[in-house]
Amino acid sequence: MKNMKIRQVIALICSVLAVIGLAIFITRSGYVDAQQPIPEACSSVAIDPEVPPVEDASEYEPQPEYDFEHKETSDVEAEPIAEEIPVPMPEPAYLTAMNGALGWLHESNPSPRVGSVGGEWSVLATARAGLGDAVWFGQYLEALDLALAGEGGRVERMTDYARVTLALTALGLDASIYNGRDLTAALHTFVPHEDRPPYNRTINADIFALIALDSRPYGGDREQYIAAILTAEVPGGGWGLTGGVMPDITAMAIAALAPYHDSSVEVRAAINRALELFGERPMRDAEGNAQMIVALAALGRDAEIHLSALLTFHDPETGAFMRNGEPNMMSTEQAAYALVAYHRFATGQNRLYDMHDVFNDDG
After folding, report:
1. What whole-number distance in Å separates Cα of residue 250 and Cα of residue 345?
2. Which of 155, 163, 228, 279 could bridge to 120 as Cys pair (CB 3.0-4.6 Å)?
């Protein structure tokens, strides 16, 4: 009997402990309202002092009820997608050098004049780059008007008239009717070298006469100029001023003949011979590389080798191109219009000396 009572007491204690444990579990798990009182059946039970008391249920926030109702996709607010900001591509090295060279030319020569250096080539490079500087161009035109009037500077040689024709045409001015004068007239008729003044007896005169006449085009004896250039080819290929082959003169001749490459077997053969000499070989100076870039661009060919070589002469601090370790006007002018020629090739525009686009001419 005594043992039975002991077993009943033990069972009662176990039941109380089970109820207390269940209450703790239910309260902490949030399955009931934390503010709901514990049922009376349990409230009167004495808790064993060794059992940890239940913490204040008010310290626990009830878990939010999950809404099991079906929601349409359109009712769900989507997270905003961050707008992708395009990363600007770095400017090509050649374009940086081109802009630097043009800037240096303008800063170093605020008043361009008539001449083979500091004049028409700077104007041509700037205009063909698509840069408009009315004041700066106006300074050149004033200088040209004075030179044509015999005051300050001269326009006398065939190369003078060719340069002036190119500069005016690049500016959108018709050189055949400039201020009532035909400045291309000196180039119209081909005159044999022996019948020319000594200063017009160079192959340069024929090369740039042909380039100038083709720039718009203007009227003139093209076939005779082409023939004279082909006749002056050095045996084995290429051209020069005094009998030997010169890389820059060779490149100038290629640029002049380029428009006839596809239509003339003789021209194509002469150009190919010249390219075998210099087409894949970098030149030693800025001018040689510059002229080869102009020539290859005129043929529609990439001049990566000569472009890389030319950029080694560029001074990033000044923007100028160097000769003998110093910024040089002639080197920078030739480099500038060569880089413009390359840019026009790379962007699918007319070649440097083909200025039909300026006048919206067909060609």
Report:
1. 20
2. 163
